[in-house]
Amino acid sequence: MIAEFLITLTVLVAILFLGLEWKKSQKTKTIPGPPFFRGVWELIQSVKQEAIHLCASKWADRYGDLVFVNALVRKVVFVNNAELCRKLFNDPSTRELSNDRPPSYTGRVLFYNYKDMLFGRYNKELLKRRKIFHHVLKFYGQGVNNFEKLMTSTSKELCHRLTRYEGDVSLFVELTRYIRWVVGLLLKGDETCEEDLDAMIGFIEKANVIATFETEIFLETFPFVPYIPGLWHRKAIQEVQAARGKLEERIFMAVRDKFRAGETTSIVADLLEQQAELQKSGNFQDMTDDDILGMVQDIAAAAYITTAGTLTSLFLQFLVDQKLQDRVYAEICEVIGDESPSFEHKRHMPYTEATILETLRYSSIVPLLLPHYANGDIHFEGHFIPKGTFLILNSWCVHHREDLWEDPWAFKPERFLDSDGQVLETDHPTRQNLLAFGAGKRLCPGENFARVRVFFIVVTLLQKFRFLPPEDVPLPSANPADWKPGVVISPEDYKCRLEPRGEPAT
């Protein structure tokens, strides 16, 4: 009875709030967008189908580069133009107001009261965390050598496992399994085992249930919901908290219990080393255990999801377009030959790099990037954006606009090459239209790290195998417009045939 009463009360409060918001929206909205009730209805329908990015792109076609939606208890502005994205999030007049994250149940409860980089609020503590993260990656000196060794050894293990298949290979399964193994080794080091990986994936899967747009809005608006018996939210939150505890035990506690100063054999060990150095100088605030745990969860989730999705998308392109695969392989033969791939090789392989960039654009596996949040009133391009508005970078729309990309629904790595066949500079207008890793002060700090991982895996596998479609099973569509909608999108599971290089086809 109590639960029913509270739910009824919640509905009545929501209806009252809805009416007040409608009246208020008539006075404050200056950015074009759908009428209030129509916008709410269309948003609710798209949330049910996990297709907000498709709905937002239709609004972009109808209303333009900036679209305002009064989403019941939240105001949302979709930014559908790359130039406006960069200006809103980078310009000195707006960047201090536009690079926050919205208050979220995930950030507050699951990420140790925002002590991470994905959900952390925009403040000095976040900037310190990002600086520490860049140091931990160590993409210089001995850190480069260690990463090359890790990628070389693990890629060879993957190749060896693939050779044991008889018949079609479950490439989707093998690639996702491989990525989780690499992420586990990076986080914990050589002692990583299957139980550690299960804990990592268990947390990611459970957290994804809570971290959806509609669930976040619901939990932030009605924070008492997790305490109401009988609602699914309570069970889901209990499960994700248990999964977080398991991840903490398997990855963080296990490394800390054996940690010795100077033995930085993993990212967690490196973070503990920095924590110890700060504490020696009397600084106990910049790197607490919660800070480390938050970054561990960031790396586990972001590195696994984005790399796995990008790779499965790219290899599907190789299967449906053998000429694309042949051209990348030709560059591998010319630059690498039979050697193990290295950072130095990457600099001399423009077509392979352009292929990776085109995969990021074409697939857009995260179609709506994590929302920014206006922590103050913003005056932008003649429009007024009130404090508390969600600012959503619509990368799906930006990456498939016909006025920005010639033939946007065709996979063309050449669009990222100049007339001499070299990769376009990062400040080139075409590169500026690529927003796969965000923009502004929330630009993903692991962008180069992610692209390098993909490079090593692609060249190692193509160096050893030709990838061919299965004989009796059709491949799923390689067009991302046909993929199942979601917060993260990827092609359906698929299989392929492998032909070792140097051996004739049978």
Automatic annotation (TrEMBL):
Write one Pfam family the protein is assigned to.
p450
Q: What InterPro entries would the database entry show?
A: Cyt_P450, Cyt_P450_CS, Cyt_P450_E_grp-I, Cyt_P450_sf
Signal peptide extent: 1-27
Q: Where are the transmembrane segments?
A: none
Q: GO molecular function terms here?
A: lyase activity
Q: Which UniProt keywords apply?
A: Heme, Iron, Lyase, Metal-binding, Monooxygenase, Oxidoreductase, Signal
**Which Gene3D superfamilies does the annotation name?**
Cytochrome P450
Family named by the database record = Belongs to the cytochrome P450 family.
> What protein name is recorded for this chain?
Steroid 17-alpha-hydroxylase/17,20 lyase
Species of origin reads Aplysia californica (California sea hare)
